[in-house]
Amino acid sequence: MSYSNNKLINNTLCRSFALIDYNIHNNIHKQYEFRKQIILNKESLKENEKSEAIKIITKTYDLNKLILNSGTIRICEICNQECLATTYCEHCVRNYLKKNFSNWASAKGGFSEIYTATWVDGYFIEWDYGKQQLKRFGNQAVVLKKLRNVENANQNWLEEARPHLTISNKWPEVVQCYGLTQEPSNGNYMLVMNIMEIDLKKYLQQNHNQLTWKEKIQIAVDIIYAVSKIHNENAIHRDLHSGNILCKIGEKFFMSDLGFCGPADKPLKSIYGNLPYIAPEVITGKEHTFKSDIYSIAMLMWEISSGQPPFFNYEHNYDLARNIVNGIRPKIFKINEINLSYQNESNDSSAQQKENNSLKIGNYNSSSKLFTSKLYHFDNLPEPRNATEEEQEVTNHIIFIFLMIHKANIKYDSIQDDYKIETMRQQNLKHYINDNDEDERYNNLNINLEEQDKLEPPYNAE
């Protein structure tokens, strides 16, 4: 951890941090005072070095006070508003940002409410009290996301939005949101967010064949850890899907769109999200819970392991909603063998393979196809239940067919309607497949493409 170019200051700051006893110094105020005393008692530091060190920890202290909304309130001498920060006034900073909003250079992306922008001044380093302006380090790429119908939002939505903004700045596992701002020309509210390179959906499409199981498991761990941080804050994501899991190449995966999914004035008896990832009880009208987030994680884990989105062969309509409520789930395929020689390759070799694969990196908000969450309204759905073995078997077979077609790169234009496939499957179920045959076919999904010609078709397509 590096705080300063001065080695002695940096060592002192590291020592002050390492010596914190969290049982005694159990809040940010006690921790700040403890670190401050360590610095002041350091005899080898000159007075100007002590001042610089205290200035550094005070910046962090001010940020933590704002994030946690905790500390002694003072009155700003400039704007006369109550503020928490010691070295600056958060209200003066916000007013400064509003005033300079039109100076941002932005370009409209593929999705009508998402913009990429160059933050001309960049992220602020500190507030210049004398000049009443921010000191910044330079241009910074950000995302501006317009929030739909926020002008019609009720007080509950606005109260919920604030802690979600706090979480995104408190935990590095969540894509950082710098704040909520308003476009001066029309009053539209927009989120100012850190920019990422690619979402999980596109990443898996480009890299799944090269990913080791260790890497797949690590992606799942990143997602679970991020959601655990959100749940520990007593918050629920509500819209977990592979388009909302983002990363920068070479880094871990991050959670995005926390708390701002869907229009603020969502109609009653409607749901918002990406249908294959929505828990059955939510589809039938119940509220999102921690458990519904965990259901979405299970769908993401299936996608990570298979390389395909859940229910990728279904239209996102009433039929899919009914199937999910009736207990239909994607087949969890067995793994007979892992190629250990590949799994144990060195990191350099693995990295070289990925480099040779010519990964296509594009800004995650450049295509409207990635934003698949939308409003749904379903009437007359039954109560959620578990599927029968026969019902699940029919769905498993449909998924198997599409996976085999995808792996063999076969065009399957002759059958486009899922209902036709299901009907054919029901007619031929007993004649062509028994339990043992089914297991054998599912277990060999990772067979080499050269060997797929030897497979018998699972049923007579004619």
From TrEMBL:
It comes from the Eukaryota. Residues 100-400 form the Protein kinase domain. GO terms for molecular function: ATP binding; protein serine/threonine kinase activity. Gene3D superfamilies: Transferase(Phosphotransferase) domain 1. This is Protein kinase domain-containing protein. The lineage of its organism: Eukaryota, Fungi, Fungi incertae sedis, Mucoromycota, Glomeromycotina.
